[in-house]
Design goal:
Strand content: 15-25%
Distance between the termini: 44 Å
Largest sheet: 6 strands, mixed
Order of helices and strands: HEHEHHEHEHEHEHEHEHHEHHEH
Shape: globular
Number of strands: 10
Strand order of the largest sheet: 1-2-10-7-8-9
Helix content: 40-55%
Length: 318
């Protein structure tokens, strides 16, 4: 488990390294949602997503011997890029296990940051098993994408900043994949504002956290088919689930079509480019999946790592 002090310690370590991302507003969005909406734009974070916060926090904690041998991570893209950047900043080497069908822009960026890429078939192989095996064979420190207390604490600095920028939020909306961002953010939010309501959003076809919370245990739903590649987890993390089952008030879903509408809205009205996973919180708000009740809403846009060709392809669909 993590606490507010763990997140504050992560924030101290990230000071001067991570970007303090802006909070954006739109009167049009407020009118459509019926609330005062504050968008935490993590698409402007280093590496294009919130993942840098956790990756840097974890790698910075390693001793000199571990850093001299290098680190390994598995990721469809955002964690991959974050680990590659953090490894370069901290003078170590990164090896990344990525699915064969990972978005080209994310693969190219990860390689461009200096990481070695090893591919696997996400539909037939377990990245957790492959990652643990490869890390053991090469003597590398494993940097998990979410199921790690230091990673969760790093991701929680997103909400710590947001509540410094907008202290009196009534509702916090967070994308949910493996649950690391949600675990970190809910820890901060519930300690600083006990009355705040916390809602997570998953892809309609990948609601493993929602089903797990309803069942009271982790449910493996298989890798979902969705355009939100950053949220294609089969089940919640073991550590993240224990945090989120205590602190999260509700999990809702958004369809791929609703995600596309949100991406287009954010581009047109807020002038930001978001990947599908990043836009899912806005998608749920615009689709009326979340009761805002006229309050002050914080929503995390978790990333913007989508290449021009893919962005055009997605938004060119009927």
């Amino acid at each position: 488990m993590i606490g507010l002090e763990d997140v504050k310690a992560a924030a101290n370590g990230l000071a001067g390294v991570a970007n303090r991302t802006p909070v954006l507003t739109s009167r049009t969005l407020d009118g459509m949602v019926g609330a005062s909406v504050h968008v935490k734009a993590e698409c402007f974070q280093r590496g294009g997503s919130f993942k840098f916060r956790g990756a840097y926090t974890k790698i910075a904690s390693l001793d000199s011997d571990a850093r001299s041998r290098g680190v390994l991570a598995y990721s469809s893209g955002n964690h991959a890029q974050a680990v590659a950047i953090a490894a370069r900043l901290l003078d170590t080497r990164a090896t990344i296990l990525m699915p064969e069908d990972a978005p080209t822009a994310k693969v190219d960026a990860t390689r461009g940051y200096g990481a070695e890429i090893v591919t696997y078939d996400r539909w037939a192989e377990s990245r957790e098993e492959l990652g643990a095996q490869l890390a053991a064979e090469r003597g590398l420190a494993l940097v998990r994408p979410y199921d790690d207390s230091l990673v969760m604490a790093g991701q929680g600095t997103t909400a710590l900043e947001l509540l410094e920028q907008v202290p009196d939020l009534d509702l916090l909306v967070v994308p949910v994949g493996g649950g690391g961002l949600m675990a970190g953010c809910s820890t901060v939010a519930k300690e600083l504002r006990p009355s705040i309501r916390i809602v997570g959003v998953e892809p309609e076809t990948g609601d493993d956290t929602r089903r797990s919370l309803a069942a009271g245990k982790r449910i493996n739903g298989g890798v979902p088919r969705t355009i939100a590649d950053g949220l294609q987890t089969a089940e919640p993390g073991e550590l993240t689930f224990e945090v989120n089952r205590r602190l999260v008030d509700e999990i809702v879903t958004a369809s791929d079509a609703e995600i596309l509408d949100a991406m287009a809205f954010l581009f047109d009205r807020l002038k930001i480019v978001t990947e599908p996973s990043g836009a899912i919180g806005i998608a749920a708000l615009l689709a009326g999946r979340i009761e805002a009740n006229g309050g002050r809403v914080g929503v995390v846009v978790s990333g913007g790592n989508v290449g021009f060709a893919r962005f055009a392809e997605l938004l060119g669909r009927d």
